[in-house]
Write a structure and sequence with these properties.
The protein is α/β, with parallel strands linked by helices. The chain has three domains: 184 residues, Spore Coat Polysaccharide Biosynthesis Protein SpsA, Chain A; 96 residues, no CATH class; 35 residues, no CATH class. The chain has 13 helices and 14 strands. The strands form four sheets. It has a seven-stranded mixed β-sheet with strand order 3-2-1-4-7-6-8. Strands 10-11-12 form a three-stranded antiparallel β-sheet. Helix 4 runs antiparallel to helix 6 and helix 6 crosses helix 7. The longest helix is centred in the first third of the chain and has 16 residues. It starts with a strand and ends with a helix.
Amino acid sequence: MNNLEVVLIHLGGPVPKYLISNILNIQAQFPNISLNLIVDEMSSKGARRIPGLKYHYYSPSPEVDRKLIASFAHVPFRGGYWRLTYERIIALTDFHQSKPTSPILHIESDILTLENFPMREISQLSSTHWLASDGEKDVASLIFIPNLEESLFLKQELLSELSVGQFTSDMQSLHRIRQENPTRIKLFPSMFSDAKMYGGIFDPAAYGMWLTGIDPRNNFGLTKYFDTQTIEAANFYVKPQELEYSLKNGNLFANSSSGERLPIYCLHIHSKNKRLLSTGYLRPLARMVEKAESRKTETSFSFSVLLGTLWMNIGQGTLVEYLGNIPPVRKIWRILNSKN
């Protein structure tokens, strides 16, 4: 596969169990692929050693660290989440310097690759590719970079985005960089209208969010499935709630109202459901596909997720702000403010 290096990244904390499970699934699907995990000082501690997985240590240069601090120090959300999501792409470009003759493919930690994921076709691309979420944000669910020159270019552009010392997310920066460099950076298709080259589509976020649930850490331990209201409010390009879904031979298909049928090559498991990010993903995914037929929003609750999120906010000194975002509390606060 053109010496393709497949890369997953986890920075800032212990490697989660769902990522380990996902790595094992990718290894089972593509036993001959060169698979890499980038970690930092925090995530390397106690990291489980997986046979066949190559580990790489990342540490930012003083210059990069200064720019990241200037842009993200005032954004305390979930343990430095926004800094870490931005920094992982810089870590990806740094990794490429150790493999200068190879193309690289970044797969986000919670991306489920299906059996028919076109690894070989991707490895032969000649330009950088990633995915678009909406009219203002691109996403790093998948990032393919064909050579070291393009990685160095992307790193330079990402650092330039930080030079003003103001907050920008990785999604906003990726979008602007692509818009300014349309001949260098292309998109993997995520909609039926764009799928001709691959004969299928890739999930930026919305398909998996609707079908397999939204991260309970964002909703006080609640996971919502088939949550059309949230998907519509996000104004995604793709409209997963308008499609029918089916499984065949271990692969997921989307069926449009006009009768078109296309495979979905990967799913963003936003809920971080370990069972869906494993070699045994077919059974729970089949249940989700069956339940999706009703189009009714379903909810589950995880006390352990809520407890972990509370504990993290206590450690960061942001508990009051966190509790203030609980919907009933927020509603009361708005009422009180409107009377002042």
